[in-house]
Amino acid sequence: MSISNITVFMPSVFTLIGIPGLESVQCWIGIPFCVMYLIAMIGNALLLIIIKSEPSLHEPMYIFLGMLGVTDIALSTSIVPKMLTIFWFHTPEIYFDSCLLQMWLIHTFEGLESGFLLAMALDRYVAICYPLRHAAIFTPQLVSQVAAMVTLRATILVTPTLALIKCRLHFYYTKVISHCYCEHMAIVKLAAEDVRINKIYGLFVAFTVAGLDLTCITLSYVQIFITVFRFPQKEARLKAFNTCIAHICVFLQFYLFAFFSFFAHRFGSHIPPYIHILFASIYLLVPPFLNPLVYGAKTKQIRIHVVKIFRSKHLI
């Protein structure tokens, strides 16, 4: 039997089924997802307003935090609206090119998120280990260059995945994607052709971005902790730890969920599909939801300005 008789040639539309095995309760699952999305939008927008309006926060750490906030808004917006239409309005169809665009946006914004977390870790490393040289090293020009490099890296590395799917994969076993959104491996697994190059390149991108960034972040914080433990005063040690704890919480939850989702897609055949898809969805929704809450609670300067905003509104 020829391949064209058992497969679909370049489907114009894919079908996203949502969470396999939990279709009957997806309408209820959509409620906490929608709440997290709204909190992420409001929290990150408030964070951006505070950073922009307060000159005292125009420092590298907060500028990178603002970039992270923009990335969080874009990442969650590229996923949640379509996800909720699947859960609530039973419209699972998505055009082939729209699916590829969503895939590109998701993985590009993931790369941006990872890059900005690395930039923030390096900023903390210089601020704590070389405090007298921090202003001279992290100049506005360097901050702009880092932002441009992070953006270019994510864009350049993710874009070939589009070409490898569009140009190499023409025949598909099915048009049904067992996922809530268009993810690279979820699409590649549908192909009825040799996908080794696609898989190898996906691994290359993952380890080039997340693997390298996580390694550099870990090394930065190892050096930070070594430096902090050498501080003679207990108060100085506590203050240094407090400036880093929010960032540590954010990058731990981001990379733990990311690596679970990554390895589950490739080696987790024994993991029930609904658990994998739930974690894959939560992994992309939790960082935008938690980041403004964590930084708002743990960063004194931001917390003070949030209180000022709500007090002024209360007086009005």
How is this structure best described in words?
With 316 residues, this protein is mostly helical. Helices cover 77% and strands 4% of the residues. It has helices at residues 3-6, 26-53, 60-77, 80-89, 96-129, 134-137, 140-168, 184-188, 196-229, 234-267, 273-298, 300-315, and strands spanning 8-9, 13-16, 93-95, 171-172, 176-177. The strands form two sheets. Strands 3-2-5 form a three-stranded mixed beta sheet. The protein has a two-stranded antiparallel sheet with strand order 1-4. Helix 2 (26-53) runs antiparallel to helix 3 (60-77). The chain starts with a helix and ends with a helix. The mean pLDDT is 86.
Number of helices: 12
Helicity level, as a percent range? over 70%
Could you tell me the mean pLDDT? Answer: 86
Shape: globular
- How far is the N terminus from the C terminus? 75 Å
Low-confidence stretches: none
Structural class: mainly alpha
Tell me about the largest β-sheet: 3 strands, mixed
**Strand content bin:** under 5%
Radius of gyration: 22 Å
H/E order of the elements? HEEHHHEHHHEEHHHHH
Q: Would you count the extended β strands for me? A: 5
- Largest beta sheet: what is the strand line-up? 3-2-5
Provide a quick synopsis of the model:
By secondary structure, the chain is mainly α. It contains twelve helices and five strands.
